[in-house]
Amino acid sequence: MTLAQSIIIGIVYALVNFSFLASYTTYYRPIVCGTIVGAILGDVTTGAVLGAQINLIYIGYMSVGGSSPGDPCLAGVVGVAMCIANHLDMEVGLAMAVPVGLLGGFMYVFRMTTNAFFVHMAEKMINEGKEDSLILPTVVLPFCWHFILYFIPTTILLYVGANALGNLGDVLNGPVLRAVSVVGGMLPALGIGINLNAIFKGNARVFLFVGFALAVYLNLNTMAITILGLAAAIVYTQLEAAGEKA
């Protein structure tokens, strides 16, 4: 991986991870950011396919109360980039994505902690009657800090890590690499299992079986089932709200 490619991918990750510029339901997801990284590295197909598999690991991802179990975006970006740059199997990319995503979770907590400094700065400016300059501590400085914190480490990790991983892959080529591939191949199933565990705790489990029946017996594609599921969810929510009012 060249330095220019590492810098571009680092910029993409820093911008995608900034909530004011991107959405956590679109660009932040590995299936989208992985495709973008694949386009930068000249292999869109691998980026999209591997990004989709990494997305399955984080299919039940949720950040509650400021805590973060990981960073799906960083997992998608680094996992896809390392896999394409070193021509590795997709299962190896999946295995790398999880620890990298965990590291991204620590970065998120660190950023939230340090951002408290800008809150105190904004409070001080309000007390001093400088409301017209609040854009500095509320937008400009947090964005600059965010960009530095996410861009520089990611760029270094991609540029240095890609070459190091290539050499390490040559050394570990054999049983170790095959074991990593097996573990990586199991990770999407883990994400699906976690999501199923959440589904079976509520009253939505019936929709899982309805969707399965539509796919198997009526041969409906994913988009058709999604549209029907959305319509059913809206009707279900409206009926539940009407029942509470009654």
Total DSSP E strands: 0
Helix content: over 70%
SSE class: mainly alpha
**Mean pLDDT score:** 79
Largest sheet: none
- Intertermini distance: 62 Å
Number of domains: 2
Q: What low-confidence regions span 5 or more consecutive residues with pLDDT below 50?
A: none
State the shape. flat
What fraction strand?
under 5%
Gyration radius from CA atoms, angstroms? 21 Å
**Assembly of the depicted chains:** single chain
- Please write the string of helix (H) and strand (E) elements: HHHHHHHHHH
Q: Can you count the helices?
A: 10
Polypeptide structure, described:
The protein has 246 residues and is mainly α. The protein has 2 domains: 3-201, no CATH class; 202-246. 77% of the residues lie in helices and 0% in strands. It is built from 10 helices and no strands. The chain has helices spanning 3-16, 30-40, 44-57, 72-85, 90-114, 116-127, 135-172, 175-199, 205-217, 222-245. Helix 1 runs antiparallel to helix 2 (30-40) and helix 6 runs antiparallel to helix 7 (135-172). The termini are far apart. The model has no long low-confidence stretch (mean pLDDT 79).
